[in-house]
Fold DUF1416 domain-containing protein.
Amino acid sequence: MCGAPKQGQHLPAGVDAEKETVLTGQVLDDEGAAVGGAFVRLLDGGGEFTAEVVASGSGDFRFFAAPGTWTLRALSRSGNGDITVSPDGPGVHEYNVVVKKD
């Protein structure tokens, strides 16, 4: 079992969204249904692994990052997918990652 903290759209108490850059969202299949239990990886601008969480049962995930270019990659039984994002500053930035069977 992974020791990742519970994921979801609500930020933990004490997180100041005006100072933190938060990447959050949901893993979805190609029909728009939530994909729970997906492994969601955060890769830096050069494609290097930075962090990984397990999406909640409703497909939610969250990372704390810095402004810049990142790739969010989801790996699941329903398929894989990724999205490149570029949050430009602090705040909550929402992105969905769509997974598809190859």
Notes: DSSP finds no helices and seven strands in the chain. The domain at 21-85 is CATH 2.60.40.10 (Immunoglobulin-like). The first strand starts at residue 21 and ends at 29.
